Amino acid sequence: MSETKTIVQKAIEMGEFTTLVDAAKKLGLDKKFDSDGPYTIFAPMEKAFEPIPDSVIDEAFDDPDYLMDVINNHIVKGKYLISDLMEIGSLTALNDKKLEISKDGDVKINGIPIEKEDIECSNGVIHAIADILIP
């Protein structure tokens, strides 16, 4: 059975990506990723933001260009399941930065392991990661 929830709906439903969803909403990206696609999102789970002081997060939220660059560094056009990632060495994020894929038992993006893979959505797929992909 195929998933009927969009990337945004699924991320909200899971409750593990609160800061990422808030950032997307602040930039108006929630509407884009609720309809367009397909996309692959390497979504930092909430625990990725815990060590960061609130003041630093607030600063990022107050700088739309920086926030957009960070968000776009987690998104790739096209749907790439874990089986696809096993076959390729890199992807290009929406901000045109290269994301390196390594496979040493686990699949990693820029050295960050994918903790929850292949969360299928109607317009793409989410892979949950435990850290932030800083551009």
Task: Summarize the structure in words.
Residues 4-133 form the FAS1 domain. This is Secreted and surface protein containing fasciclin-like repeats. InterPro entries: Adhesion/Biosynth-related, FAS1_dom_sf, FAS1_domain. This protein is an alpha+beta fold and 135 residues long. The chain has a single domain, classed as FAS1 domain. The protein has six helices and seven strands. A seven-stranded mixed β-sheet has the order 2-1-7-6-5-4-3. Helix 2 (18-26) packs across helix 5.
Short account of what is shown:
The protein contains six helices and seven strands; from the N terminus they run αααβααβαβββββ. By secondary structure, it is an alpha+beta fold. It is globular, with a radius of gyration of 14 Å.
Stretches with pLDDT under 50, minimum 5 residues: none
Q: What would CATH call the architecture?
A: Roll
- Global outline: globular
Could you describe the largest sheet, including whether it forms a barrel?
7 strands, mixed
Q: Level of helix content?
A: 25-40%
Distance between the termini: 36 Å
CATH class: Mainly Beta
In the CATH hierarchy, the third-tier topology is known as FAS1 domain
- Enumerate the strands of the largest sheet in spatial order, edge to edge or round the barrel: 2-1-7-6-5-4-3
Strand percentage lies at 25-35%
Tally of structural domains: 1
Find the CATH superfamily.
FAS1 domain
Q: What's the number of extended β-strand segments?
A: 7
- Number of helices, where a helix is a run of at least 4 consecutive DSSP H or I residues: 6
Mean of the pLDDT scores?
93
Instruction: Write down the secondary-structure element order.
Output: HHHEHHEHEEEEE
Please compute the radius of gyration using only Cα atoms: 14 Å
- Class computed from helices, strands and strand pairing: alpha+beta
Domain FAS1: 4-133
InterPro entries: Adhesion/Biosynth-related, FAS1_dom_sf, FAS1_domain
Protein name: Secreted and surface protein containing fasciclin-like repeats
Organism: Methanococcoides methylutens MM1
